[in-house]
Design a protein that fits this description.
Strand order of the largest sheet of chain B: 1-28-27-26
Distance between the termini of chain A: 31 Å
Structural class of chain A: mainly beta
Distance between the termini of chain B: 44 Å
Structural class of chain B: alpha+beta
Number of helices of chain B: 10
Number of helices of chain A: 8
Oligomer: heterodimer
Shape of chain A: globular
Helix content of chain A: 10-25%
Largest sheet of chain B: 4 strands, antiparallel
Organism (chain A): Salvelinus namaycush
Radius of gyration of chain B: 34 Å
GO cellular component, one term (chain A): small-subunit processome
GO molecular function, one term (chain A): RNA binding
Largest interface: A-B, 50 and 38 residues
Helix content of chain B: 10-25%
Strand content of chain B: 25-35%
Strand order of the largest sheet of chain A: 6-7-8-9-13
InterPro entries (chain A): Beta-prop_WDR75_2nd (IPR057644), WD40/YVTN_repeat-like_dom_sf (IPR015943), WD40_repeat_CS (IPR019775), WD40_repeat_dom_sf (IPR036322), WD40_rpt (IPR001680), WDR75 (IPR053826)
Number of strands of chain B: 29
Largest sheet of chain A: 5 strands, mixed
Strand content of chain A: 35-45%
Subcellular location (chain A): Nucleus, Nucleolus
């Protein structure tokens, strides 16, 4: 195994972004959300991911703004730490170690230096009871701080989303089950209010969420039955009152008051954002059909932007409750992947079923959803317990011209509804267009389908539990009708009324293998049964033809722990091994096959060539549970790895979905190195936009800093001439204003001494010290102080300084700051 | 925010024949005009001259009809016995007819009395024709001879006695005055050249030949006899080209459409089939009331005239294109193009503030109701649309959508007598339609469940329920019968399919089937 150490299983993309409530920054420019073990910073206008704040070692379970600094956020995680981040630069400022897994975090402006976190009551992860504790964050210069000063506030709270601070942080309200608890900090006293269980059919009174009015003493609570209750006068045990609002027909998932308290936003399974006017509750505004069920609502501090998280791994940004301005969509994984993982041959995107009734095209390289293709084309009714059409199968032909989909709807007490749809790729619109719909193509579920890879015919084969397989052919009847080509059934085949389970075309399309329980039947294109192969006992689970030089082999896996390889030329068994293969996948670009085997609750991977029963590569205990879906994605550019065991990753990359719906892949050392290098380069590029102006100033300074010798003055002239050159060769329309350049230009020609600068230095130092702390890289600070102390540090500043305004000065300082980080990284290397 | 997706109305495949340019062309005829003749109509011939009158030979008369007249414009009655084969000469001035009394008569079209009588045959003459030079005639008779005659002095030129049975059809070449072809009940077609003593070509049709036809190019010959229509290549020495078997009774008559692209064949099975002459596929089909004996097409396919055994002459005229234009002229004047593009190509100025208007999507009425979750109203609207334009697809689609939403029961409930009877009416009309049955059966069951309690309160509803019951019972019986037929067919197919042994190589013992296993597997084929 030592030899294999350099191939790693890495988590690649597609993590959840709707796990916890997102946070909009004060200036509404960024949106932060918890995504797996990191925090993602999105631009709220361009939908692009700006930073990925990495540092937590377990699931991030909450993000809040730092009430005392609007450029910082706290995040908490199940790894027992609270971390403070600077999200504009993507820098970790501080880590507070709490020591218990944290499930959510709350802060209030009026409780400075304190965060409220939800931790389990008993000190182990499996505990079902949670408590809300206040944590005093110690003031310390250190990077990592132990925060052990915990004081319990509320016992028995829900792990997330059921606590809210009231007016000016005077009280905190939390709800669980049928009980609402309000804790007043001044009195150090809590009141509890109970509702009746409501055993009638439509009265499920349990609390689902709670939100407090920011200006008045009012608590809004959402309930299972879709009601919203507004509680008032709750600072006593007896004479509290509540009024009830009812619009939602399903449970209210989330409630949020706008910052001024004029509106109350609510959302639920209906996927309608409802805006209630506070005090005029009969007036409502609706924003319907946002996507999946609304799970969280967040409002920007100025109230201009709302954002809603949806159950389909999506965040919608809404401008003042009328217009959807942006949609951030993650990989939709839903309850399970019904279709297999596929690669679109054109866009090289990963394709699987996403939103109900849609296929999603997900770019693996950019970790971004490209688009959703509406397959069912029906209005989705957001209601629980409703059977709707689901995309269950999909297949691409080899060139990506055709897409076939199967949608299915099972309804209790009535027969199965199946539709088979063929989609043609339209060059003009760059998407798939529906060509043919076949209603009820089979009498029972379609278990598999595949396109014939042969270039002459466009043929699809569907396999169904009704004991038949059907071949569908593209019939070009354009000469008789104006409609053009459409699909029709060409052949119906079966074998002794056995139920077929899988099918596979050989690489050239000259053979079709269909597995009928224990028997593999091999058919020619003219639908003659050529031969039958069988290796009893055990039904055939998966079939795969070899590729390229191994195309004479047919591989099959059976339910009784058997992996067989038949030679089709001799029609005999070549070899077989007793392994329980849960998934067999062929690399379309090479001879390699990947077999995922499940053994004692874990999955193993074997990569082999059909010609020899020895694995090229094997990895034990890949992940827990069975791997049901995997796909080989072709690489953009071939990797040139010379190690024998890593060569199978050269042409394509193997992606697989674990039981917990995490998308994983294999990566080699060299690839990781390359990625790391590119990300480093990217970070530098990120910090300062590459404009001609930047090049002008950047090069200017870079040169000066590289030469930190006392002889700096001497090379002023050539440096100046470079500046002149830059100035002259840069297009005029991208240059800063002439008044700004003029002084610099002139000064670059002069030989200057630095007298005026000395007074300014201390002030600047002070201002920067904060930032330095935040950065926390000791050696960087050292480097900078060295630089700052030296005489060479000045000239860049000095050049601009007399002509600059305050704002420009600050800007320049920022630029300078970035420059150092870049330089330091250079030095590290 | 996605917009509301409207209810999908499925497009059901059109059953029956496909609409092709051919069907459009051949359906573009008016309803047939029927004229009763005195006996079976044995021959129809169009005059090549401008008004294109046609001669109809039936019983002992020949009637000449004008192109649009219902009454004959002229009648020739001077026949002692049944007349046959009334033919116009290529200048349209003379008419030739054979007769059962073995005399061939030549008439002037304007006269009444025969100009010439050709006597010599000993039995009835069924075939007459002019040669291309207009001075000779060809006759074929039941006395097994065919003869050439000179018109001016009505003398017999030559006689050929090569056939061994009745000669019932023949034609002369339009390009060469010496060549003619005859077909006989002795199953042969013979090509004769008047310049030689014997037939120059013989083809075996293997059925009594009823009709022959030469292509305008005269390279191909078509013959009809028995159930077969055969095409022969004369330039390749009479090689058979195609044999068509599309009729199930004797084919009696052949004709070519005006452009020579389509071949028509008429048969005793009461059908006229139209073939494409490039691939000899049937492109269209006419049905008639009785067995057809004769068929002719006017020049430019202006009319199709068919004579039948019961003496009915059926004439179909082509629909005139002017009629259509009149209808178009009556249509409401649409707003001019300018109205639609008004303001569309306006380019905003630099300092204009643009107010974008959201594109309004047009939803159907029922979709608007569905969008607001007004389920009963949506169903009402859908039913209304069915009453208005009799399109059950929409109503069924809305019902399906309601069923999908799980609210069909609520939408069906709470209806009064009138509403319910309307609903039942719809169900009675469509529940047995195989396209709608899956949806409507659920709806019917729901209605019966809901309104169980009120059965017997309204006579209208009760009557409809009884009708529905009868309908369903009849359908069940029908399905039963169909299943029986299917079972019978399966047996027949199974018996007719050759049993094919699948190669089961002996060497593949470990992977092949166990010897005592399933035996020789037979691929199960099913009609798609």
């Amino acid at each position: 195994m030592v030899a294999h150490a350099e191939i790693r299983v890495v988590h690649r993309g597609g993590s959840k972004i709707n796990f916890r409530e997102p946070v909009i920054t004060n200036d509404s420019r960024f949106l932060l959300c918890a995504s797996g073990e990191s925090v993602k910073v999105y631009s709220s206008s361009s939908e692009e991911c700006v930073h990925d704040l990495q540092g937590h070692t377990d699931l991030v379970s909450g993000i809040v703004r730092n009430p005392s600094n609007h450029l910082q956020v706290y995040s908490c995680s199940a790894d027992g730490t609270v971390r403070l981040w600077d999200f504009t630069d993507g820098i970790l400022i501080k880590t507070f170690i709490i020591g218990y897994p944290i499930y959510s975090i709350y802060v209030s402006e009026n409780h400075g230096g304190v965060v409220f976190v939800v931790v389990p009551m008993a000190n182990d992860k499996s505990s079902e009871l949670f408590q809300l504790v206040a944590v005093h964050l110690p003031r310390s210069e250190d990077q990592e701080v132990e925060a052990r000063e915990l004081s319990a506030v509320l016992c028995d709270v829900r792990p997330s989303g059921a606590a809210s601070f009231g007016r000016e942080g005077e009280y905190i309200a939390a709800a669980k089950g049928l009980q609402l608890e309000v804790f007043f900090f001044k009195k150090q006293k809590s009141y509890r209010f109970f509702l009746k269980p409501g055993n009638k059919k439509w009265a499920k009174n349990a609390f689902t969420c709670v939100s407090c009015h920011p200006k008045e003493d009012c608590i809004a609570t959402g309930h299972e039955d879709g009601k919203i209750r507004l509680w008032r006068n709750f600072n006593q045990k007896k004479e509290y009152t509540y009024s009830t609002l009812h619009w939602h027909h399903g449970a209210v998932n989330t409630l949020q008051f706008t910052p001024e308290g004029t509106n109350l936003l609510s959302g639920g399974i209906e996927s309608v954002l409802v805006q209630w006017r506070y005090t005029q509750e009969t007036q409502m505004d609706f924003l319907p059909r946002l996507g999946g069920a609304i799970t969280h609502i967040a409002v920007s501090p100025d109230g201009s932007l709302f954002c809603t998280s949806h159950s389909d791994n999506k965040i919608t940004i809404i401008q003042s409750c009328v217009k959807v301005s942006a949609v951030i969509q993650g990989l939709v994984k839903g309850e399970g992947v019904r279709t297999n993982l596929m690669i679109d041959p054109r866009s090289k995107a990963l394709v699987l079923n996403g939103k109900p009734g849609h296929l999603q095209f997900y770019s693996l390289h950019r970790d971004k959803l490209l688009y959703n293709l509406d397959i069912v084309q029906q209005e989705y009714i957001h209601e629980e317990g409703l059977d709707q059409f689901e995309v269950v199968r999909a297949a691409f032909d080899t060139r990506g011209d055709w897409l076939a989909t199967v949608e299915e709807r099972t309804q209790k007490g009535s027969e199965l509804e199946i539709n088979l749809k063929m989609w043609a790729y339209d060059e003009k619109t760059q998407s798939f267009v529906l060509n043919t719909t076949v209603t009820a193509p089979h009498d029972d579920q379609i278990t598999a389908m595949c396109f014939s890879p042969s270039p002459e015919t466009t043929m699809l084969v569907t396999i169904s539990f009704d004991g038949h397989f059907k071949a569908w052919l593209l019939a070009d009847n354009s000469d008789t009708t104006a409609e053009g080509a459409s699909w029709s059934c060409d052949f119906v085949g079966g074998y002794h009324l056995l139920k077929p389970g899988c099918c596979c075309f050989s690489a050239d399309g000259s053979l079709l293998a269909v597995g009928f329980q224990e028997v593999v039947t091999v058919w020619s294109p003219s639908w003659e049964l050529l031969t039958t192969l069988s290796q009893p006992p055990g039904a055939i689970r998966d079939l795969c033809f070899g590729r390229l030089s191994c195309s004479k082999y047919l591989l099959g896996t059976s339910t009784k722990n058997q992996l067989c390889c038949w030679n089709l030329l001799t029609c005999s068994l070549e070899w077989s091994t007793p392994v329980d293969v849960s998934l067999l996948q062929a690399d379309p670009l090479s001879e390699n096959m990947a077999a995922f085997c499940s053994q004692s609750g874990c999955s193993d991977l074997f990569v082999f060539k059909p010609s020899e029963p020895l694995p090229l590569y094997s990895q034990r205990a890949l992940c827990t549970g069975k791997v049901q879906h995997a796909v080989f994605a072709p690489r953009d550019q071939m990797l040139e790895s010379c190690e024998e065991h890593a060569q199978w990753l050269n042409r394509s990359q193997l992606y697989f979905l674990t039981q917990h719906m995490d998308l994983m892949t294999f990566s080699t050392k060299s690839e990781e190195d390359r990625l790391l290098a590119s990300s480093k380069r990217l970070m530098v590029d990120d910090s300062v936009a590459v404009t001609p102006f930047y090049l002008l100033l950047g090069k200017h300074r870079q040169q000066q800093e590289a030469l930190t010798n006392p002889m700096a003055e001497r090379i002023q002239l050539p440096q100046g001439s470079i500046a002149i050159k830059e100035l002259l060769y840069t297009p005029a329309h991208v240059l800063p204003s002439a008044s700004f350049l003029c002084s610099m230009f002139v000064r670059s020609l002069l030989i200057s001494s630095s007298p005026a600068r000395e007074e300014k230095e201390p002030v600047e130092e002070e201002m920067e010290s904060e930032e330095e702390d935040s950065e926390g890289e000791a050696e960087l600070r050292d480097a900078r102080q060295d630089l700052g102390g030296s005489a060479a540090w000045g000239p860049g500043e000095e050049l601009g300084a007399p002509a600059l305004t305050k704002a420009q000065e600050r800007e320049l300082r920022r630029v300078k700051h970035f420059d150092h980080s870049w330089l330091s990284s250079l030095l590290e290397c | 925010m996605a917009s509301f997706k409207s209810t999908k109305i499925p497009i059901y495949p059109k059953l029956g024949e496909k609409v092709t340019p051919d069907t459009l062309y051949w359906k573009n005829y008016k309803a047939p005009v029927q004229i009763k003749e005195f006996g079976a109509v044995t021959s129809i011939d169009f005059s090549p001259l401008a008004p294109h009158n046609y001669a109809v030979t039936a019983s002992t008369r020949i009637h000449i009809y004008g192109p649009f007249s219902q009454e004959p414009v002229k009648t020739f009655t001077r026949f002692k016995d049944t007349a046959y084969s009334g033919k116009f000469r290529s200048d349209g001035q003379l008419l030739l007819a054979g007769c059962e009394d073995s005399v061939v008569r030549l008439f002037d079209v304007s006269g009444k009395v025969a100009l010439r009588m050709f006597k010599g045959h000993t039995k009835g003459v069924h075939v007459t024709d002019f040669t291309s030079d207009c001075y000779h005639i060809l006759t074929g008779s039941d006395d097994y001879t065919c003869r050439l005659w000179d018109i001016p002095n009505s003398t017999e030129l030559t006689s050929y006695k090569e056939h061994t049975d009745y000669i019932r059809c023949g034609t002369t070449s339009k390009l060469n005055r010496d060549i003619f072809i005859t077909g006989s009940y002795d199953h042969t077609l013979r090509v004769f050249d008047a310049r030689v003593e014997k037939s120059v070509m013989t083809m075996d049709h293997s059925q009594p030949v009823e009709s022959v036809l030469l292509y305008p190019s005269e390279g191909l010959l078509v013959s009809a006899g028995g159930r077969y229509v055969k095409v022969w290549d004369l330039l390749k020495g009479g090689q058979p080209l195609v044999s068509l078997k599309n009729h199930h009774k004797t084919v009696t008559c052949l004709s070519l459409s005006s452009n020579g692209q389509r071949l028509l064949s008429a048969s005793l099975d009461r059908h006229v089939k139209i073939y494409n002459t490039t691939n000899y596929k049937v492109v269209h089909n006419f049905d008639y009331a009785a067995s057809i004996l004769s068929l002719a097409l006017a020049p430019d396919d202006e009319s199709i005239v068919v004579g039948m055994t019961n003496g009915v002459l059926s004439i179909k005229h082509r629909k005139s294109p002017e009629g259509k234009q009149e209808v178009a002229g009556k249509q409401r004047r649409r707003p001019v193009y300018r109205v639609f593009v008004k303001g569309r190509n306006y380019v905003p100025k630099n300092d204009d503030f643009l107010v974008s208007k959201p594109v309004k999507s047009n939803l159907a009425k029922y979709d608007k109701q569905l969008k607001r979750f007004n389920i009963s109203k949506a169903l009402d609207t859908a039913l209304e649309s069915w009453q208005k334009n009799r399109k059950p697809e929409i109503t069924v689609a809305v019902m399906k959508e309601l069923d999908r939403r799980g609210t069909l029961k609520n939408a069906l409930a709470g209806r009064d007598e009138q509403n319910l009877s309307q609903l039942l009416n719809f169900l009675i009309g469509n529940v047995v339609d195989p396209r709608f049955t899956p949806v409507l059966v659920t709806a019917t069951e729901m209605i019966l469940d809901i309104y169980q309690a009120v059965v017997g309160q309204s006579s209208v509803v009760d009557r409809q329920l009884v009708r529905l019951q009868e309908l369903v019972e009849r359908e069940i019986d029908y399905q039963q019968e169909l299943l029986e037929v299917l079972g019978m067919l399966d047996t027949l197919f199974a018996a007719s399919l050759p049993r094919k042994e699948v190669p089961c190589p002996g060497s593949s013992r470990p992977n092949g089937l166990a010897e005592g296993g399933l035996g020789a597997p037979v691929p199960q084929l099913q009609a798609a």
